[in-house]
């Protein structure tokens, strides 16, 4: 939930850390801080607010010199967002300094014990407790920083990615990870530390991703030393060559990352099926499925776990898998699944969907399913992420970095991957005829061009947004494949414009939500021909007769709904199971424009963070 950045080397640390924090700000943005060490003394600047505020604060208050530095952008867990609770934190002696992403769950008892030993605390954070525990261990055991960190971490319960330095060791930073991500960039006599690789991509392509329960001592002029936190065993760094490029993580002329990412969808969907969907050969090639085909075809059922938008993609997948592959599917919120003692057997396949690959609840659900013997398959966007590593096999979405906190291209690319899997399984188990299979391949190949076309409605959508930007509520309705799209449309509006919105299966409206309809209530209805069209048209009539305002998403050429609805947004026609890839687009744009017109921060909505690495 927080972003951490560190540098040690021959360059000035300040600009590297600040730029890195700006790239990681999607992870949390309620406060920020930086510490610089010039070999003699440390300089600390922290502030409530964003990295912009930190730049101002640091330029006014500290000298910006130092070849070692740590920076932090926070999403508050323990203690309100204010200057004092911002990271970095010093130990009581002022000799040790830490940044931390995660939660120390048993911090209260450690704090009580340390207080009895005379320690005092400036902040309300668990992190300040941790750095003082490290200090106490270092003193009591007479050990070096690395050993002290290791002993202290064996006493804590929780999740962490930390970076710590000691002012008596100006050439060393100690890092450790459990549950929160931590990457180390390896340059020429310099090292970078970050929650993901984006802060150091212009300096080096070589990186090591720490595994859970690993720590590293990073010393200038020396190779990285990795060890296991639990038993001190040596671990060998697996140095990866990164594929990320700078262009992908910048706005590229768009006003917001969210808009850029909405417009990237034709390319992203194409990249998702590139090299997998081979329509001319009539095959789908996916190594993760090919190598484990029997696990899927012999499965009793598929359980899908995810959170938020990824959970909505999972709901679409339920329709696709049952429809095309005739395999029973259950879709679960990872946060509920992990705690409700579910029945899982070795004949179950669990598919975990996650853009970031770091969502704590999804990760915990995976671990539980693995313990119970299920085969676990990941659908992630971030390459090398914790979920990608924790699962038995998987398929990347290849959407490219998604920086806007509101998921857009992650959703459509997840649906694309899941469709490919369902098609592959349907063909393998005979549920899909050869001709149907080929029809789907051809239709799926045509989706990127149709998404491009759907994006052309942007101007009309902007006009509609202007009409409804001040509505306090909004209802989203859809049926079948487009019920999850209604949920996703409502989530998008809620999270970036702070308008209360509800998604419902259209037919459920008469069981309650219809009571909300009056002339003030905008209702977004997905009414694509093929998917229960006549029934949805009846629902539209019911809303109109109660004076509700209808914004309808229809296939091109629709005349029936056009005659009833207040506004109509057309998307190109496709087969029903692929329609979510098109009907989602106007809903993303609608929420984007409404949020913008309401003066909301589209890329960094209040109270949210891009990856939820805490429970
Ligand atoms: O990285 P994940 O896909 O696991 O994230 C899951 C949710 O936190 C995420 O989809 C969240 O709901 C987004 N803010 C939705 O736009």
UniProtKB/TrEMBL annotation:
It holds the Pfam family GATase_6. It is an enzyme of class 2 (transferase). It catalyses: D-fructose 6-phosphate + L-glutamine = D-glucosamine 6-phosphate + L-glutamate. The active site is at residues 2, 610. It is found in: Cytoplasm. CDD domains: GFAT, SIS_GlmS_GlmD_1, SIS_GlmS_GlmD_2. Its EC number is 2.6.1.16. Signal peptide: none annotated. One of its GO terms (biological process) is amino sugar biosynthetic process. Keywords: Aminotransferase, Cytoplasm, Glutamine amidotransferase, Repeat, Transferase. Catalyzes the first step in hexosamine metabolism, converting fructose-6P into glucosamine-6P using glutamine as a nitrogen source. Homodimer. This is Glutamine--fructose-6-phosphate aminotransferase [isomerizing]. The gene is glmS.
């Amino acid at each position: 939930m927080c972003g951490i950045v560190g540098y040690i080397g021959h360059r000035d640390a300040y600009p590297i850390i600040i730029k890195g924090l700006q790239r990681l700000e999607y992870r949390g943005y309620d406060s920020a801080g930086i510490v610089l060490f010039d070999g003699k003394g440390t300089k600390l600047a922290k502030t409530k607010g964003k990295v912009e505020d930190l730049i101002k604060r640091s330029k006014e208050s500290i000298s910006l010199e130092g070849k070692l530095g740590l920076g932090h952008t926070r999403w508050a867990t323990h203690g309100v967002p204010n200057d004092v609770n911002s990271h970095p934190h010093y130990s009581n002696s002022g000799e040790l300094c830490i940044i931390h992403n995660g939660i120390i769950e048993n911090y209260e008892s450690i704090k009580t014990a340390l207080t009895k030993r005379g320690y005092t605390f400036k902040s309300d954070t668990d992190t300040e407790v941790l750095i003082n525990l490290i200090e106490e261990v270092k003193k009591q055991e007479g050990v070096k920083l690395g050993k002290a960190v290791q002993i202290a971490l064996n006493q804590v319960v929780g999740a962490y990615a930390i970076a710590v330095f000691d002012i008596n060791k100006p050439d060393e930073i100690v890092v450790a990870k459990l549950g929160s991500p931590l990457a180390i960039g390896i340059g020429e006599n310099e090292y970078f530390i970050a929650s993901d690789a984006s802060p150091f991509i212009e300096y080096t392509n070589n990186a090591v991703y720490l595994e859970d329960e690993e720590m590293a001592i990073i010393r200038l002029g020396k190779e990285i030393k990795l060890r296991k936190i639990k038993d001190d065993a040596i671990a060998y760094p697996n140095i990866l060559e990164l594929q990320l490029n700078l262009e992908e993580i910048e706005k590229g002329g768009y006003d917001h990352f969210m808009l850029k990412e909405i417009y990237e969808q034709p390319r992203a969907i194409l990249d998702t099926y590139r090299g997998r969907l081979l329509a001319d050969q009539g095959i789908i090639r996916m190594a993760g499925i090919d190598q484990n085909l029997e696990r899927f075809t012999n499965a009793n059922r598929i359980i899908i776990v995810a959170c938020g938008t990824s959970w909505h993609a999972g709901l679409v997948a339920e329709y696709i898998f049952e429809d095309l592959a005739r395999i029973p599917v259950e879709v679960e919120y990872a946060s509920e699944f992990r705690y409700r003692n579910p029945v899982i057997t070795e004949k179950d396949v669990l598919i975990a969907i996650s853009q970031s690959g770091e969502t704590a609840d999804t990760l915990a659900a995976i671990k539980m399913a693995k313990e119970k013997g299920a085969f676990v398959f990941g659908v992630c966007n971030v390459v090398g992420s914790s979920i990608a590593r924790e699962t038995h096999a998987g398929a990347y979405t290849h959407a490219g970095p998604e920086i806007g906190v509101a998921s857009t291209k992650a959703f459509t690319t997840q649906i694309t991957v899941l469709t490919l899997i369902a098609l592959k399984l349907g063909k393998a188990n005979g549920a899909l005829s050869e001709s149907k299979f080929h029809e789907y391949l051809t239709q799926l190949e045509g989706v990127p061009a149709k998404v491009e076309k759907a994006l052309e409605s942007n101007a009309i959508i902007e006009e509609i947004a202007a009409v409804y930007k001040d509505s306090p509520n909004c209802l989203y309705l859809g049926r079948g494949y487009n019920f999850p799209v209604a949920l996703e449309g409502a989530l998008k509006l809620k999270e970036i414009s702070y308008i209360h919105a509800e998604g419902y299966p259209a037919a459920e409206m008469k069981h309650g939500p219809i009571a909300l309809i009056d002339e003030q209530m905008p209702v977004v209805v997905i009414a694509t021909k093929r998917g229960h069209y006549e029934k949805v048209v009846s629902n539209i009539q019911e809303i109109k007769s109660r004076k509700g305002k209808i914004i309808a998403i229809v296939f091109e050429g629709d005349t029936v709904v056009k005659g009833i609805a207040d506004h109509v947004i057309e998307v190109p026609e496709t087969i029903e199971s692929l329609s979510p890839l098109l009907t989602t687009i106007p809903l993303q744009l609608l929420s984007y424009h409404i949020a913008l017109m309401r003066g909301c921060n589209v890329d960094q909505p209040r109270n949210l963070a891009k990856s939820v690495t805490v429970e």
